[in-house]
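Sat 14:20. Reprocessing the chain from the morning session after the first attempt stalled halfway. Input below, unchanged.
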Amino acid sequence: MLPFRYALRNLFRDPTRLLQTVLGSTLVTLLVMGATAFNRGMEDVLTASGHDRNVILIGSGSEESLQRSEVTEQAAGIAEAAIPGIQSRTGTPAVSPELHFMGYLAPPERDPVQMLIRGVTSRALLVHPEVSLQRGTFPGPGELMVGRFAHQILGVTPEDLLPGASLLFGEQRFTVSGVFAAPGTVMESEVWADLNDLRTLTQRETISGVVIRLEEPDPSDVQVFTTRRFDLELSAVSETDYYAGLTAFYGPIRTMTWITAILMGIGAVVGGFNTLYAAFASRAAELATLQTLGFSRPAVMFSLIQEALLASMMGTLLAGVIATRVVDGQVVRFSMGSFLLQITAPVLWAGLVTGLVLGLLGAVPPAVRCLLPSLPRALRSGG
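Finished this time. Tokens:
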């Protein structure tokens, strides 16, 4: 076998070629890591937003979107009285009537931005126990409670949405009453308003749905209720199934990120073919000389692969540093809210595998092609 220092020395023979290889590997690896973090982040936030004990009473025919659903205001009280097994706290049943509305909000003197506004009552905290107040109070009339990532949607700083700040909904001015957290869920990008206020401003006599939290994760009693009370025109959808449907809905977007990463990877591999073939071909006589000195073709080929892998691993290391220092913790917006890009161990492993594949795929074909000619022909090529 050729010594490792031979591959290391040859790696720095041409600094320009080395820089091209490292930067190409960095770009592709970073793109793959970003695509992995994007897909995992979106899937995780939608999955975590649903709870297996929560069932949503939603308008028939609108099972895929609470924003399109319309449910009579009396549905919450009727369901509370008729459905057994509803969880309660301090004697209050966990039944939350809610109105979901994509409205335009804006801090004073700023352009309005469309985001999800959820009209709720205090019972919302019973069905969404993951919600916790970080500052201020639950919203009352004329007030809004903002998720801790809502400032990303509105394009302002967190300090601009502290309790006491103002937000405009159309011509109506609201006061921020508090800031809440709901780790890992889409709710952190929402704004919560008093249910009656939102119904008045949107001129709606109905609500979007009723969220019910059960003692056991078995929605059969709720489904029986919707069947018996067909006059209410309701469907019962498990909250986990609802968000699973949204995950499938955003599947094409996630697929496009992978397609982009794959196409970039193919381009990098093709570019690597040309770069490495030119580099190896210029050393054809040298490689033939090594064979005349007793080194086998597999040994020479292994040394060439070492060179390519060293360059690609340098790019992978640089991509890992950029990902952990720059990409990690970035907030990505989408129509349902936002999520964090997290550079976790699986994401780093995806980057490492990408670097290895780039090094191998980029080096093997050029190395094989350069070692195929006979020794006399290869030696004459350097003359």
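The chain has 13 helices and 14 strands.
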